[in-house]
Amino acid sequence: MGVNFAPHLPKPESCPALVLNADYRPLSYFPLSLWNWQTALKAVFLDRVSIISEYDRQVHSPSTAINLPSVIALKKFVRQPRYPAFTRFNLFLRDEFCCQYCGSPHDLTFDHVIPRAYGGRTSWTNITAACAPCNLRKGGRTPEEAQMIPMRWPHRPTNQELHTRGRQFPPNYLHESWRDFLYWDAELES
Question: Can the peptide bond before residue 31 be classed as cis, meaning omega within 30 degrees of 0?
């Protein structure tokens, strides 16, 4: 069964669905929890989500026309783990995508605050975002030896903390139907 598209309308690929948990909060802010139109429609037909809002855009099969969902909510609440996985992206998000030694957002790497040669581990509490020049300048020395003290000492963030941090980075595109469920505008103005 093929899906027909009208040539004058936006392509379905440009119509993602904002995914909300059962409590009507986004599953994540950064990256924003979005599903492509195929995944969203599959979840609708499997009765795993409720459609909250729709695009004016329809897709057609030989026997059916359906509006593409723009906002969907899971029917079963997905409990988020308390702590996020230790990944490069999550580390940069915790540190707000800037070097913790000089504040630069460019050429980010990560630095062992206590060098591995001194027994420093690769963990939330010993890794910080550092630009390549600062990382090179610090080398295998401790912050005291290098006279480079991080602006914020590394710590293990909670998922809630990363969720809040992610809200500082609104995406380039927000569909009008998503605004009631996203909270960047009011917080950035205050």
Answer: yes
31, 38, 33: which is closest to 12 by C-alpha? 38
The proportion of the chain whose per-residue pLDDT surpasses 90, expressed as a percent, equals: 67
| Under 8 Å between Cβ of 102 and 159 | no
Residues 59-105: tens digit of each pLDDT:
988 998 999 999 999 999 999 889 999 999 999 999 999 999 999 99
Cα–Cα distances (Å) from 47 to 35, 44, 75, 118, in that order, read 16, 5, 8, 54
* Per-residue pLDDT band at 42 (split at 50, 70, 90): very high
**Cβ(91)–Cβ(129) below 8 Å:** yes
Q: Give the separation between CA 99 and CA 129, rounded to whole angstroms.
A: 5
H or E element in which residue 166 lies: helix 159-166
- 117 is written with which tokens? 């040669």
Q: Cα angle vertex 164, ends 154, 38, to 5°?
A: 120
Distance CA 28, CA 51 (A): 18
